[in-house]
Amino acid sequence: VQLQASGGGLVQPGDSLRLSCATSGFPLDLWTIGWFRQAPGKEREFVASISTSGTLEYANSVKGRSTISRDNGENTVYLQMTSLKPEDTGVYYCAAKKFLGTTYDYWGQGTQVTVSS
To answer: Which residues of the chain have pLDDT under 70?
Structure first.
């Protein structure tokens, strides 16, 4: 099981960014994929997730500004973020949770997102 996050970068406040999580080694449609982020000096926090049934969940801090989606054919999960704010800065990770699982068992390496003018 492998996950690889990409798409981060340095952007200005108000810009948009699309993060990608490429997966391999498991059937994507049978796992919940989540995005998390960790800002400097802070604990890692939940951002968004998409379940096996397609249920979407978002943290209040990104709700209305972010969209998580899944392309099973490409084995990739995307996180589209708009109206980015400096407080969105952090390392973004994607993770996989088995169907009916309670914890995220597999994590990819992070991708840095920096929002600054």
So the answer is: none
